[in-house]
Structures are given as C-alpha cells and as structure tokens.
Specification:
Elements: H1 2-26, H2 34-37, H3 39-63, H4 65-75, H5 87-103, H6 107-140, H7 149-179, H8 191-202, H9 211-239, H10 252-282, H11 307-318, H12 327-352
Amino acid sequence: MASEDVKTGESAVTKIVTLAEEAKLASREGVVTAAAASPSLALTTICKSLLAGGVAGGVSRTAVAPLERLKILLQVQNPHNIKYNGTVQGLKYIWRTEGFRGLFKGNGTNCARIVPNSAVKFFSYEQASKGILYIYRQQTGNEDAQLTPVLRLGAGACAGIIAMSATYPMDMVRGRITVQTEKSPYQYRGMFHALSTVLREEGPRALYKGWLPSVIGVIPYVGLNFAVYESLKDWLIKSKPFGIAQDSELSVTTRLACGAVAGTFGQTVAYPLDVIRRRMQMVGWNHAASVVAGDGRGKAPLEYTGMVDAFRKTVRYEGFGALYKGLVPNSVKVVPSIAIAFVTYEVVKDILGVEIRISD
C-alpha cells in the first residue's frame, strides 16, 4: 500500500513538472493561459500580436518619412553634383523642387514593406526570447533565470534576420523608388511595377542585391534595439531612479526615451552597412548612374562584385566619410521612429488585450 502511494506521488510530481515545463513555453509568467488551452484563441492572440507589430511599423515610419527619404538620397547622392549637404538644406531642396508630396515619396512602398517586416520582427522576437530563455534555464538548471542583455541581443538578432529576409525584395525596390526625383528618368511607377520590372530585366537574384550587408547590419541594429530597450526598462523598473517607475510600470514618455536610446545605439553601429546595402541595390538599374555616379570624367563606376568590393570602391572614390552619408537625418529619424514603434506596439497590444509581453 505504501509502495502504491509512493508510485502515485511520484507520478503526480512528474505530471506537475511536465505541466510546468509546458507552461514556460505558453506564458512568460509561467501560468497556462486560455490562449495555450484553445488553438483558436492562440491563433487570435498571434494575429493580434502581428497586427500590433504592423501598426507600430506603419505609424513610426510615416511619422519620419521625409527624413527617411532624405537619408537614402544622401546615401546614393552623386558625389560630383551635390545639391545639398545637411538635413535642413536637403529637406528645403526637396520641398522646393518636388513639393509636399516629394517629402513622402516612396512612403507607401515603405509602409507596404515595413508593416509586414515590423509584424514579423516583433512576433519573432517574442518567440525567440521564449525559446532562448527556455534553453538557458535548462542549461543552467535555474528555473527562475531571466533574459540577460546578451540573450536579448541574440533574440533580437534572430528576429531581425527573419524579418529582413522575409521582406527584402520590397526593401530593395523601395530604395530604388525613393531615389527617383523629378529630373531623373521614371522607370518605376510603384512597388509592384518595380518588382516585375526587376524580375524581367535583371532576374530574381537581383531582388536580393545587398542582402548580405543587410543581414550583417541587422544583427547589431535590431539586436541592440531590443537588448538596450528591454534592459533599460528592466533597470528603471527595478532601481526606480528619481521615482520614474510607479507600481512596476513606466510612463509613455519614459518608454519613448528608452526607445530613443536603443535606436541611437543600434543605428550608429550598423550605419555603414546600410549605406553599402543601398548602393548595392542600385547596381543593375539602368538609370542609377544618374543618381549615384558622376556625369563627367570623374564618373565613378557603379559596379560591385560584392560587399567588400562595394566598401573598397566607396572609400576609394569618396573617402571614409561616405560610409556615414545621411547619418544626421537618419539619427534624427531613428530616435523618434524606434521610440514610437516600441511604444505603439505595447499600447496596441494593451488595447487588443494581448497579455504576452516583449520579454521575460
């Protein structure tokens, strides 16, 4: 009888442990939610999470669309026929030559890319965070272990690579559409026209030109964005400096500040790779030379055999500073963009009633 009781007790303990392990995967709080029990509810939760990420991306990018366009124009600007050097000067030039609509040129295509990109990125980060935390707890044997900044960096890098790869063709044609001006030949009428034209004239591989520097750049960029943002929030909640955190919650203003700091770190590290990515995307486009290369004797060749060659030719013809062309407008853009994206994502999830948070 005692033996049967022991076996029954061991069986019960084993079942409880199994359920506990399943709960870790279902919820960051370690509690089995209704979403975990109901497949249809789980699907609804996933859809809401993706929707929140998409809205965050669309809102944040539209808010800084003029700066986004100026950044790309500066990155690929003709070094022998410079029209503007600074942010204010560049914005005034676009306004004067193309009007108000010129400031938002390419934004529709950008949103068509960034909405799914942002949705996949935020959702992938949540899933990667759970998976990495689960493995980390298993390896350390510490069931109460939390995500460290390094682990968050890894989760963010995974999310960035997945999102970038899934939406890269749209980013590639968006770059080309954005650099078109009133004086340049209009080859593309929109995103779908651009995609079909590139496929027909350059082949499917052309849609992934510049993919390698993009992936390499997205690792520190997205990784640092998530790592710095989440780690900074956790530190503020735990240490409560200057009484910033109230009842383990941060105000919208404080979260915006956290996002701004995160964006600054990420974009500064990854910016040279972003410049090279844009330039590689121009290769093969018949009218790209009118935008990037000079028109006189000093015309720089617009042909790159790869990422390293693109770096080498850019520095040789234009100097090391060319790797940071457009950094100022990009910095002005990134600070509010990343901040708005993070906060919008969390606010929309709260409105939709999604309980899963960005990190554990």
